[in-house]
Write a structure and sequence with these properties.
Largest sheet: 13 strands, mixed
Shape: globular
CATH architecture of the largest domain: 3-Layer(aba) Sandwich
Strand content: 15-25%
Radius of gyration: 22 Å
CATH superfamily of the largest domain: Gcn5-related N-acetyltransferase (GNAT)
Number of strands: 13
Oligomer: single chain
């Protein structure tokens, strides 16, 4: 281990972990939790209190959920240096393979733990050993982890140091923008071909012929309740509503959204942007700030106006945020090969899943069996695709 790794290990040599049930989360823990989120080396808005607490309240269902907490010293009496929600599951993808995983719901688009800089290896080592001591079998599965940052490097170091096999089992490139005070117009011209830019100008002009087209931007809670309800209706009127995946498709996800937006606004982490035609919302975008970055959380547009690309027009407005000197990056939170996002968001960040073998009787053989089944399925799928 290099000097940097050794010094970090020395700094957190007295670290201890604890588990906390959701019903036992109190004001003291919330305060330490928010302090951790504010200094996390890799921000993750989805594991901050403003979003995770509403998710626990409304989206947990029957999931067996616990918070894994890593403390610099004695639990509840020292600095909180790491946090991740964990759950047990008896299904792994399509198979009935029991395992332990970081908990995410359908509207959480990142699964990286909150960890103070320098404690990444200590965090993963503590988590692996805590899971081995607490849970009765299976393996550890971490989903939604950025594979190019300190957390992924810390996981690899921990795995090698304590002799736990750790396999990257899935990688999906996520559209990303590195902002850092870039000029929005220069970025746009470099990202989009002249022919496409001309087409977008034509579409905007035709949209403006239909009435008064106005742009709106809020960073506070002005008119928030009304805006949230407008967003829920606009999203539900489109294809997501037809497929039952819109936030308003269930009372639980709608309640989560309302509570999360209020919490983020209260902390100054909510950016709302939109386009209105004759006062009616035709495109809306929710962006959540965390640390030096931002997450493009939710967007909706009027699909009856799809020929004018209102969603893309709003994304062009969103590019103006690149000039914010406090903003280093924006995560699109979009699925791979997203038709609206990919041609505007040119950078990519690898987001993946990592499976980790646990120590103990029968666990190594179980893990090898799971991985063999995955590899066989992958080869058969590739063979069918030829």
């Amino acid at each position: 281990m290099g000097k940097r790794g050794a010094s970090a290990r020395d700094r957190f040599a007295r670290a201890e972990f604890s588990w906390r049930a959701p019903d036992d989360i109190d004001a003291a823990l919330l305060e330490r939790w928010q302090a951790l989120a504010d200094m996390a080396g890799e921000p993750n808005i989805f594991y901050e209190p403003a979003l995770l607490m509403p998710a626990i309240h409304h989206c947990r269902g029957e999931d067996d959920l616990s918070l894994f907490l890593l403390w610099k010293g004695a639990p509840d009496a020292s600095e909180l240096i790491g946090l991740m929600p964990m759950t047990r599951s008896w299904r792994y993808r399509r198979w009935p393979f029991r395992h332990i995983a970081n908990w995410r719901h359908a509207n959480a688009f990142l699964g990286s733990p909150l960890v103070v800089p320098g404690a990444e290896e200590v965090f993963w080592t503590a988590l692996i050993r805590a899971v081995e001591a607490r849970f009765w079998g299976g393996f550890l599965h971490i989903q939604g982890l950025p594979l190019d940052g300190p957390l992924a490097k810390g996981l690899r170091r921990a795995g090698y140091a304590i002799g736990r096999r750790h396999d990257v089992v899935q990688v999906r490139p996520r559209a990303f923008i590195f902002a850092q005070g870039r000029d929005a117009d220069d970025y746009y011209k470099g990202a989009v071909r002249a022919k496409k830019r001309k087409e977008l100008r034509r579409q905007r002009a035709r949209l403006e012929e239909l009435g008064a087209l106005t742009e709106h931007r809020w960073t506070d809670d002005e008119g928030l309740d009304r805006w949230v309800e407008e967003f829920l209706r606009l999203e539900a009127a489109g294809w997501k509503g037809g497929e039952g995946t819109a936030l308003a498709s269930s009372p639980e996800t709608a309640a989560f959204f309302r509570e999360a937006m209020a919490g983020a606004a209260a902390r100054g982490q909510l950016l709302r942007q939109g386009l209105r035609l004759n006062g009616r919302p035709i495109a809306m975008l929710v962006t959540l700030r965390s640390g030096a970055g931002a997450f493009s959380f939710k967007t909706a547009f009027d699909e009856d106006l799809a020929r004018y690309s209102p969603g893309v027009q709003l994304q062009l407005m969103n590019l103006q945020n690149l000039g914010d000197p406090s903003l280093a990056w924006i995560d699109s939170c979009a699925a791979q090969d997203h038709p609206m996002i990919d041609h505007l968001w040119r950078a990519r960040r690898p987001i993946g899943s990592v499976s980790i073998a646990l120590n103990g009787r029968g666990r190594g053989a179980y893990f090898r069996g799971v991985r063999a089944a995955e590899e066989l399925h992958k080869r058969l799928k590739q063979a069918r695709g030829k």
